[in-house]
Specification:
By secondary structure, this protein is an alpha/beta fold. It has helices spanning 2-48, 59-71, 89-102, 117-120, 126-144, 165-171, 177-180, 185-194, 220-235, 259-264, 266-275; strands spanning 51-54, 77-83, 105-110, 149-151, 241-246, 249-254, 280-283. The protein has two domains: 33-194, 3-Layer(aba) Sandwich (Rossmann fold), CATH 3.40.50.620; 208-296, Alpha-Beta Plaits (2-Layer Sandwich). Helix 1 crosses helix 2 and helix 5 (126-144) runs parallel beside helix 6 (165-171). The longest helix has 47 residues, at 2-48. The protein starts with a helix and ends in a 16-residue tail after the last strand.
Length: 299
C-alpha cells in the first residue's frame, strides 16, 4: 500500500514535468516551422527576379518589404502606396518613413475608387472594385519599371474573412508570397519582432470603407468623419479600435481588456463623437474583431 501511495503522489509531478516538456517541444517545432517558412518566403521572392509590392505601411506589407530586401537587390524592388480617402493620411506618412528606413524605392499614387459608382454604392463585393482599381494601376507601373511581378501582402489568416478583392487580384495575376510560403498573421508578427521591425506589434488596419454597412453610400465626407473619430480614440489610448457607422449611431469596438477603461472615459468620448454628428454612441461588448460588418452579410 505504501508503494501505491508513493506512486500516486508522484503522478501529478510526472504529469507536470511531461506537460512542460511537451510545451518546450511544441515551441521548438513552431520556431523551426516559422524559420522554414521565412526561408521559403525568401526563396519564392528570389525566384521572382524583381517585384513591385503594394505597400500600406502595415504589419504584413512591411514584413514582406523587409523579406524582399533580403531576397533581391534593392534596385529590383519598388514599393507603391495609394493615397486615398479610404486610408488615414497618417498611415501614408508612416509608409513613407518605413520605406526610407528600409532603403526601398517608394512611389505614391492616387487611386480613383471614389469616382466609381460600383464602389461608392457599397455593394457586398465593394472590395473587388477597389482592388481592381489599385492592382490595374500597379500592373502598369510594374511594366513601366520593368518589374516581373506585382505582389500583395495577403497571408493565410486572411482566408478566414470574406475577401471579394481576391477575385480582382487573381484576375490580374497578382502574387501573394506570404500565402505561398504558408505564413499566418501570428507567424508574421513573430518574425517581424525577430527582424527588429517596429511594426511587429502595430495594430491591425483596414480600409475605412469597412466601417460602413453594405448599401450605405460611401462619400469622402463620411470617411473623414469616421477617420476623425478613430484618430481621437487612438489619441486617448485605444490603439486597436474600430468605429462602425450607422448614420446617426456609431458602434465602437476596442479590445475586450480595454472595455472598462473606455467606460471610464465615456463622458469625454460621448462629447467628442456627438460633436462629430453622432446622436447615439454605443460600445460593442464583444470587443474588437476583424470583419464584424460581414457577420450580417447573409441575413
Amino acid at each position: 500500500m505504501g508503494d501505491i501511495k508513493c506512486m500516486a503522489e508522484l503522478i501529478p509531478s510526472v504529469r507536470s514535468t511531461f506537460r512542460r516538456k511537451v510545451q518546450v517541444i511544441t515551441r521548438g517545432i513552431r520556431s523551426m516551422n516559422s524559420t522554414y517558412k521565412f526561408k521559403k518566403l525568401k526563396k519564392i521572392i528570389s525566384g521572382y527576379g524583381s517585384c513591385l509590392i503594394a505597400y500600406s505601411g502595415g504589419v504584413d506589407s512591411t514584413f514582406l518589404l523587409k523579406a524582399a530586401s533580403l531576397a533581391l537587390p534593392k534596385d529590383k524592388i519598388l514599393a507603391v502606396s495609394a493615397n486615398s480617402a479610404t486610408y488615414p493620411k497618417e498611415e501614408l506618412l508612416f509608409a513613407k518613413r518605413m520605406a526610407k528606413e528600409l532603403g526601398i524605392r517608394h512611389k505614391i499614387i492616387q487611386t480613383k475608387e471614389l469616382e466609381s459608382s460600383y464602389f461608392t454604392f457599397n455593394p457586398i463585393n465593394r472590395c473587388y472594385y477597389c482592388k481592381k482599381e489599385l492592382f490595374s494601376q500597379l500592373k502598369k507601373i510594374a511594366k513601366e519599371f520593368k518589374l516581373n511581378f506585382v505582389c500583395d501582402a495577403s497571408n493565410v489568416s486572411d482566408k478566414l474573412d470574406f475577401r471579394p478583392g481576391n477575385r480582382a487580384k487573381q484576375g490580374l495575376g497578382v502574387r501573394s508570397p506570404l500565402v505561398e510560403a504558408g505564413l499566418s498573421k501570428e507567424d508574421i508578427r513573430k518574425a517581424s519582432r525577430k527582424l527588429g521591425l517596429k511594426t511587429w506589434d502595430k495594430p491591425s488596419l483596414a480600409c475605412l470603407a469597412s466601417r460602413i454597412p453594405y448599401g450605405t453610400k460611401i462619400t469622402p465626407k463620411l470617411l473623414d468623419r469616421i477617420n476623425q473619430a478613430e484618430v481621437y480614440l487612438r489619441q486617448i489610448g485605444f490603439n486597436q479600435v474600430r468605429l462602425r457607422h450607422y448614420n446617426g449611431l456609431c458602434r465602437i469596438e476596442v479590445l475586450k481588456d480595454d472595455l472598462p477603461r473606455l467606460l471610464k472615459k465615456r463622458n469625454q468620448v460621448i462629447d467628442k463623437l456627438k460633436r462629430l454628428g453622432y446622436n447615439y454612441i454605443t460600445l460593442d461588448l464583444e470587443g474588437y474583431r476583424t470583419g464584424s460588418m460581414n457577420e450580417v452579410k447573409n441575413e
